[in-house]
Amino acid sequence: MKVKASVPLYISLKAFMQVLASVSKNYCFSGVQHVFEHDSLILGCKMKFGLYMPANTERQKIPLFLWLSGLTCTHENFVTKSGIQGIASRHGVCVLAPDTSPRGIGISGEDDSWDFGTGAGFYLDATNSPWDKNYKMESYLVQELIPLVLKTYPELYDQVMISGHSMGGHGALTLGLNYPHIFGSVTAFSPICAPIRCPWGQKAFSNYLGEDKTGWARYDTCELITSGKTTKPILIDQGLSDNFLQEQLKPELLEESLKHSTQKALIRRHENYDHSYYFVSTFLEEHLLWHLKNLDFKP
Question: pTM for the full model?
Fold first, then answer.
């Protein structure tokens, strides 16, 4: 497989201005689990993220896997609960786990509820005051964090594999469809498939984006697919004992959108599995192998 050796064009000045501070470093499965902190210029606060770097690999470029976590999570949840390090070590993959929102901004109401504000950035760029100044997780990931990691670790391949859980599954799908030049492969666990049509999404979008719904479609997977956005085949896993399945996640709406699109997707439903990381960890390696196949990396 041919890989790029040059710095990606979307590496921004914001990335080159950043300095990473090491918070922790733990050896794990012959690789290293890092936690870094940096001053985000886009979000206007300090941000932490996890980065697992596997041991030396024979590949010319190391695949980069970006994981987006769900509501109430930080960078820690995936790092400590999923068992990703052993999987990533076996397949020679670097894993990036960012936080889910800005922290400590001081906006009135940002800590009032668990499904909005702190821990609930929804991977979008807010346009409604007062959230529009800091709640810009879309730009943070695309313009700052990913370029910063690629600058720091030039051995990484710049076509990023993206996945996530719940709100993070929503983020993975929408970012993957909106930025196919950055995200070369997309999967999701228990994603919020149609946030425009569920309480979590309606609450977040009305506050972050305002009551004018013309800008909401950019952050709704069903709307993006209906509008013609496509990427490589997508894998989605959903547990049938998930308490949020009917009210919030609505995979049936995504299936309906796919019927009228050229986008290919495999949506798997699993008896007995719930919304937890027990579910995620069960099928996580299958997702990583799906990504590696999409990008033509040999496992």
Answer: 0.94
Residue 3, domain member (yes or no):
no
Q: What phi and psi, each to the nearest 5 degrees, are found at residue 40?
A: -75, 125
Would 252 be classed as within a structural domain? yes
Domain with residue 116: its CATH number is: 3.40.50.1820
Q: Is residue 299 part of a domain?
A: no
The pLDDT value recorded for residue 16 is 54
The whole-angstrom separation of Cα 172 and Cα 184 is 11
User: pLDDT (tens digit, 9 = 90+) per residue, 207-219?
Assistant: 999 999 999 999 9
pLDDT of 281: 98
The residue range of the domain holding 227 is: 13-294
**Which residues are tagged catalytic?**
166, 242, 275
